[in-house]
Amino acid sequence: FFSKPRDFSLPNSSWGPEMMRLYEHYNSQCEAETEGGGKQKGPWRRIPSYNRSLKRKTSFFCVCFSGGVYLSKLIQSKARLFTRSIKEAGAAFEYVLFDNSDAQKCVGILQAGHLLEGPPGFVHGGAIATMIDTVTGAHAAVLSGPVMTANLNINYRSPIPLGSTVLLESSLDKTEGRKTFVSCQVTSSDGATLHTEATALFVSISVRKILD
Ligand SMILES: CCCCC/C=C\C/C=C\C/C=C\C/C=C\CCCC(=O)SCCNC(=O)CCNC(=O)[C@H](O)C(C)(C)COP(=O)(O)OP(=O)(O)OC[C@H]1O[C@@H](n2cnc3c(N)ncnc32)[C@H](O)[C@@H]1OP(=O)(O)O
């Protein structure tokens, strides 16, 4: 029943204690206290959830060759960001991203819901890849503006139990012209278990070129 864009990165009733603990840990560092007792910007910044609001124009190609204006418009009007497409709170991807521009790092806190099952009791590898793409992609976009994933290389080290909360940490490796290289580690919420490691390459794009 949401007619307006909503910020999905804020706590809801499905968030468990570990999700809340990590959220508070980073959120409390979004503001720092000055010597005079006032408030100033802290090292971390919460990234509000991205709500798709682009309207594409219907091209001549769409009208004539790919299902017509109706299908094209219908699909576009229903389009939603994949990771925010399941409405039941806690059922799939519950996550929040924080960015630290001085450290050139971005973290994602993920609580993996029951619809993300792969092997019985564990999170699907594609869902893990989706979240790595999301955290590294948002990080690259913060650093370099509009980008697309050109390469994503993942090593799955230990399975992620369904329902658990994990931390995804993205670090900038280097930028070279239009290319932004980042690395990502997925660990258990206490940092004791390394679940997944990845490297990713993002290439800067012209949004106008893609939409046209
Ligand atoms: C409408 C788009 C809006 C974009 C909005 C952006 C940000 C929005 C903000 C926040 C969003 C928040 C959350 C979003 C959530 C998650 C992010 C999801 C991201 C994705 O899920 S996105 C979908 C999957 N993604 C694709 O669907 C890409 C298909 N692909 C292409 O669209 C082209 O392939 C492209 C554009 C990548 C490059 O094409 P191009 O023509 O612009 O550039 P070109 O080919 O010349 O490459 C330039 C230099 O990159 C090197 N290079 C290229 N590819 C390489 C590779 N694979 N390995 C090693 N090097 C590579 C070349 O070797 C050259 O290097 P050099 O300059 O040194 O010669």
Give an account of the 3D structure.
The chain contains five helices and nine strands, in the order αβββααββαββββα. With 212 residues, the protein is α+β, with helices and mostly antiparallel strands. The strands form two sheets. A seven-stranded antiparallel sheet has the order 3-4-5-7-8-9-6. A two-stranded antiparallel sheet has the order 1-2. The mean pLDDT is 90. Ligand 3IX is lined by residues 50, 133-134, 137-138, 141, 146-151, 177-179, 201, 203, 205, 207, 210.
Layout: helices, strands, pairs:
Blueprint (H helix, E strand, L loop, with lengths): L16 H11 L3 E3 L5 E3 L3 E3 L12 H6 L2 H11 L14 E8 L4 E8 L12 H20 L2 E10 L8 E12 L2 E10 L5 E11 L2 H5 L1
Antiparallel strand pairs: 1-2, 3-4, 4-5, 5-7, 6-9, 7-8, 8-9
The protein binds ligand 3IX.
The site of ligand 3IX has 20 residues, from helix 4, strand 6, strand 9 and helix 5.
Detail the poorly predicted runs.
Answer: none
| Spatial strand arrangement across the major sheet | 3-4-5-7-8-9-6
Fraction in helix: 25-40%
What is bound: which ligands? ligand 3IX
Largest sheet: 7 strands, antiparallel
Mean pLDDT: 90
Shape: globular
| Gap from first CA to last CA | 32 Å
- Radius of gyration using CA atoms only: 19 Å
Q: Please state the oligomeric state of the protein chains shown.
A: single chain
CATH class: Alpha Beta
Architecture, CATH level 2? Roll
Number of strands: 9
